[in-house]
Amino acid sequence: MNSEQINRSRTVDWTLRAYIVLAYVFVFAPIAASFVFSLNSDRFPSIPLGSVSLDWYRAVAADPLVWQGLGNTLMIGLIVGVVSTFLGFGAAYTDYRYHFFGKQAYLALALLPPTIPVIIMGLAMLAFLSRVDLSGRAISVIISHVVICAPFAMAIIRLRLSQMDPALEPAAWNLGASEWATMWHVIVPFTKPAIFGALFITMAVSFDEFAIAWFVSGLNETLPVKVLGFLQGQVSPRINAIGTFVFVISMTLVIVAQVLLSGRAAPKSDEKE
Amino acid sequence: MQRDTLVSIEGVIKRFGSFTAVRKMDFEIRKGEFLAIMGSSGCGKTTTLRMLAGLEAPTEGVIRLSGKPINHLPTWQRDTPMVWQSLALFPFLNVRENVEFALKMRGVGKAERRRRAEQWLDRMQILEFSERNIAQLSGGQRQRVALARSLVVEPEILLLDEPLSALDAALKVRMQSVLKNLQRETGITFVYVTHSQSEAFSMADRVVIMSRGVIEQIGTPQEIYGAPRTRFVADFLGSSNIFTGKVLAASDSGVQLETADGPIVLKGARLAQPPRQGATATLTVLDTKTHLSMTPPPDATNVLPVRVIGEEFVGATATIYLETPRGQEIRVQKGHEDLVGLPLDIGETLYAHWAPTDSHLVAEA
């Protein structure tokens, strides 16, 4: 018997396992229910279930409005991801490299947007964007989403930079790399997992975001806004089908980000002596 | 400036805000020498090295490399590579790419880059690891990668910032001989910053001892060991017994000092500036040249009654710690055979003595 086994209580072990299972059930039960009912042929979500069918998926796929919403969402998500990651990288590097008066305030302001209630944010965005004649377009959603996504990108990239040996950058200068060359050949490669992680996370955030998009999107509705439209009209199992679809895309983005962020960070830990 | 001078540091001062890291420093680094800069933490040794590397600019004064002032040349425009304490290898590049980095930044072509990198990897005996990740290497192998990465541009000078501090004792000794041989074979000037006396003294041709931003002494290890210039150096090296007292008599060949424990004499010296009578002066004697006996030796000068307060064995030698009646601590270092028959239990009384010609006058008390 190794020391791990002799120092463990079976009761504690099983309690912890049960706790984790319950926590996951609590989180995933509604999503699972949505998935199950999306495959149910009945018009209303009730038990016993009818037969298994893909009718609702077909109905969704045949709806041009859904495709339009999806196209908007994907296009906006991609642009938001790229722009937010670029801005987040710049902000994180500024924080890493420079010390200046008011840096704490700079950081606090940079990380503020996600903590503002989305309703307030959405209203403020609408008020501001319509004032400058930019509301009701795809660019309005992009601008608004960048505001809430860039802080996430900054936080992720900043974490990676904090793991970097502070001697790495001056070592590159010392070996003949100018500041730009060092940025390209040292800082970017080192933070690459975090850059891609940030890209996928910000895409996922934009993809799921509803409230602000609802305020500013006008006719260029994103998918979550379309879903609300469906719900207001009638309760249709098509919602379940869309929900499952959206869930799969978001989870894929988040999981890819997680793999990038943890997988590459692993050799870093044993590199320290 | 001498002909064989590679770097000259002229009146260099470095301030960080109100803190002065380096005060008015003047010295020269000769072509092809192994120079160690030694001192405790915060003495300004690393700041000095960083100014040579171009990572800091001097507040005042001039640093010249081969006669040309380089004060405000950015580090990437100098050929002054540095080996970092943390080694600072690039974790996202493999061993060969790490070594190629400086060549790539200088626009050397791919094939040439590879050839020169592999040549240095071979020289450092790590060619077989060239495609490995840094994380897969041992401490000693990383050390060699860091050296190859800095030397691949074949600089005139290599700066080393305590590169061995993370290694275990046995590996440290092995890397010391690797470094020393490398320096001798390449003829590249090495400037090696360390807080370790054994590293500095075993490798360097000349040692600079710094304290609080000031150079206390520059000289060969033998010179510094045998004749510490200041009391600080004698204390720092810890290999001498130190006596301070009032000068009773002084000539250009000797000094007689009145200390709390009695007179201490220096004879047979050649003093450029003998101390004035009545002034305070400091004499030192190496612990290896201090002898012990059970009775006071006949007609000997420099005899002190002492009490044993401890002993320490390191390999073939023993260090005996003693105390005079006035509480001055004295150390004696001897081979075991020289101590046979002496009562060395704590509290025993013995006599410490040494020849007046083995005394040394410290210039700055």
Automatic annotation (TrEMBL), chain A:
Membrane topology: Multi-pass membrane protein
Protein keywords: Cell membrane, Membrane, Transmembrane, Transmembrane helix, Transport
UniProt keyword Cell membrane present: yes
GO cellular component, one term: plasma membrane
Cellular compartment(s): Cell membrane
Major site of localization recorded for this protein: membrane
Domain of life: Bacteria
SUPFAM superfamilies cross-referenced by the UniProt entry: MetI-like (SSF161098)
Family membership noted in the UniProt record: Belongs to the binding-protein-dependent transport system permease family. CysTW subfamily.
Species this protein is from: Gemmobacter lanyuensis
Taxon lineage: Bacteria, Pseudomonadati, Pseudomonadota, Alphaproteobacteria, Rhodobacterales
Name this protein carries in UniProt: ABC transporter permease
Annotated InterPro entries: Bact_Polyamine_Transport, MetI-like, MetI-like_sf
Domain ABC transmembrane type-1: 70-257
Any one GO BP annotation for this protein: transmembrane transport
Transmembrane segments: 21-39, 74-93, 105-128, 134-157, 194-219, 239-261
Automatic annotation (TrEMBL), chain B:
Region forming the signal peptide: none
Gene3D superfamilies registered for this protein in UniProt: 2.40.50.100, P-loop containing nucleotide triphosphate hydrolases
Keywords: ATP-binding, Nucleotide-binding, Transport
Entry annotated with the keyword ATP-binding: yes
A matching Pfam family: TOBE_2
Record carries keyword Transport: yes
Cross-referenced PROSITE patterns: ABC_TRANSPORTER_1, ABC_TRANSPORTER_2
GO molecular function terms noted in the UniProt entry: ATP binding; ATP hydrolysis activity; transmembrane transporter activity
Gene Ontology BP, a term: putrescine transport
Domain ABC transporter: 7-237
Any one GO CC term of the record: ATP-binding cassette (ABC) transporter complex
Protein name per its UniProtKB record: Polyamine-transporting ATPase
Provenance organism: Gemmobacter lanyuensis
